[in-house]
From TrEMBL:
Pfam families to which the protein is assigned, alphabetical: adh_short
Organism superkingdom: Bacteria
Stated name of the protein: SDR family NAD(P)-dependent oxidoreductase
Keywords associated with the record: NADP, Oxidoreductase, Plasmid
Family: Belongs to the short-chain dehydrogenases/reductases (SDR) family.
Amino acid sequence: MTESRGVSKRIWIMGASEGIGAALAHEWASQGHRLVLSARSEGPLRSLAEQIGGAEIIPADVADLSSLTTAADQIREGGELDRAVTLAALYDPGKVMAIDTETAGQIVTVNVTGTFNFARTAVPLLRKGGQLALTGSVSGYIGLPQGQIYSATKAGVINLAESLRAELAPDVDVRLISPGFVDTRLTRKNDFKMPAIIEPEEAAKAISKGLDASGFEIHFPRRLTLSLKLLRTMPYWLAMRLTRRLVT
């Protein structure tokens, strides 16, 4: 499905308070779209809304289904959505055996269960043919060193998006967003060199362009994502031999 440009859309952005979500809000506001901004904290959302010239502010937490239900009731009062996008995620760098179980559980809850909660909440709010976009990651393509539980959760999001695409088409246009390294508060936790890292504004433009075009997955930057896609197509004995070389 190809979205027509020049038509104002009502778009719900979950995880809009910073990073890629905030950059997307700026990008879509500049295109004249009507935005619903959500995140756990209200203050940053209000500041963002002032910067972009106004938006609906509805705080919500993807890990709290009751808060999403309340948000849905408020959104419904304003009419149908054309697009719903979630970028909410938790990240903690390190190796799998080093992460504590409580932190791992929180990451799973937000990244996997939270994405599921958002999808279940957003779909009934969409117009027929509306768009649901879930954010995975290129780290979900294949298990990589220091990807820890985050990579596993993003693999789950990729699988969830594929299932929803099969189940909901053509009534819902399900899309998958797979970013590489983007300079945000989360990636600044990394203590290793991040190849092909880009700014949130560049990521936002790639997402906006991709969601307006046809196709299932929007992945960027391609100088990184295409090499990881190639790695994913290799037999395990070869792919794992190559990934072991990345261990520091």
